[in-house]
Design brief:
The structure is a homodimer.
Chain A: H1 10-23, H2 35-42, H3 46-58, E1 62-65, E2 69-72, H4 77-101, H5 104-122, H6 126-144, H7 147-167, H8 174-189, H9 193-220
Antiparallel strand pairs in A: 1-2
Helix pairs in contact in A: 1-3, 4-6, 4-7, 4-8, 4-9, 5-6, 5-8, 7-9, 8-9
The structure holds a DNA duplex.
Chain lengths: 221, 221
DNA sequence: AGCTTTGGATTGTTTGACAATCCTATGATG
DNA sequence: CATCATAGGATTGTCAAACAATCCAAAGCT
């Protein structure tokens, strides 16, 4: 086994930090990212900044306009709706595959993650909820056994997060969300692919609806 | 309307040329892409080459290993199979959406593209087939009205092309392929989403099977 | 007010440099 | 002779400095 730990070059760190800053909303959608300033903030050279930005462009978190430079991606509702459409398809498939293929250890781990999520909901621990959700999804996508689905959904989730920062949605949706995720996991535990797919569909559908109302509220506000 | 023509910077051209070189098989999968040499070949500086490579990395056509540099992505059969799984889902959806939403003009254009494809098959014009296929897909993805599906499928097609160059597959499959595509278009013309989805599924399934045998032949050869 | 010009800010691209890392071939050693 | 260590070259990772091209906004002109 290869346990080497890569010295994690300057660029990778820069990409991570910038990604975090974007999805956390520290850089707002539409905001321009001036290269010189990023050099200052990150303490690295312009060449490295530019390469880091190209990577984030690949993840669709940054859009680089010729002769105007990079800015944080702005997500229209139309685009977001299309992303939800794709999520419906792929998360449904991922759940069905996980129901078919997940090992006992993976089921157990998902159970733990969902437990942590439910606990975080009970204690209203926002950061805990986010972490537990991410973990739950990571496990499910790993269990589904399709690396391409994993990769695509990871990207779509990141993009949908671009909405969140602005709309600060779903304060009250957490309990429902927990129930929906519980339904997915139950189906996986019972090795019922069709039920798992259906539960995942409902979950995405609910998230989409919630985002839509949050978006509408924001629009008028 | 904005008809401005961008002076198309050095980098974009470099990306295009490299992409072409990769999908055409001029650079073989696994081959290392030494920066200095690309500088020579493209006649541009190292910085620009590196940014171009980062973009191609985002398209998954190039994989950059730390301290080893970039090389053309190698596609295992396992990965290819996963891509076909996703294509089944998304192309099916795209076809169904196109059946629902395509305008008369779009239907007509697809008809023309498919006609060109059939003609190219009849005259055994390999380049014409490729061009017509690409056009047919472009039109269908445009007609489906979901830019996210479009974007993802575009990437997956490019990745699958990485197999083609090696396996030089499907010399005889073109006529069947034409029939399958005709089935898709017929369903779209009749505005029958379910039928269109099914036809698209069959098409991807057939392409997957063909790739599999081509892969197996190559393995023993 | 509306148009033009000008100047500053920012990006696009190049060149040159150097440390860190990897790979290979050479040489040392048992 | 086989194996291990070492040295050297090749390649990448990163930086710094420079300059032309482009864009944007504000000042100036009519």
């Amino acid at each position: 086994m290869d346990l080497r730990v890569t010295p994690q070059g300057v660029q990778s760190q820069a990409v991570d930090k910038l990604r975090e800053a974007i999805v956390s909303g520290h850089f707002q959608p539409g905001q321009r990212l001036v290269e010189a300033e990023l050099c200052r903030l990150l303490g690295i050279s312009r060449g490295s900044v530019r390469e880091a930005l190209r990577r984030l462009e690949g993840e669709r978190l940054v859009v680089i306009t010729p002769n105007r430079g990079p800015s944080v991606t702005e997500l229209s509702w139309e685009e977001a709706a299309q992303i939800y459409d794709v999520r419906r398809l792929l998360e449904g498939e991922a759940a069905a595959l996980a129901a078919r293929r997940a090992t006992a250890a993976q089921r157990e781990a998902m159970e733990a993650a969902l437990g942590a999520f439910e606990a975080a909901v009970a204690t209203e621990d926002a950061l805990g909820r986010i972490a537990a959700t991410a973990r739950f999804y990571d496990l499910m996508l790993a269990a589904c056994g399709n690396a391409v689905i994993d990769e695509i959904l990871r990207g779509l989730h990141a993009r949908i997060n671009l909405l969140r920062s602005r709309s600060m949605s779903r304060q009250g949706r957490a309990p429902e969300s927990a129930r929906e995720m519980r339904a997915i996991l139950s189906a996986i535990q019972e090795r019922a692919p069709a039920a798992a797919r259906k539960a995942a569909l409902l979950h995405v559908e609910a998230a989409c609806a919630a985002a839509k109302v949050a978006m509408a509220e924001r629009r008028v506000a």
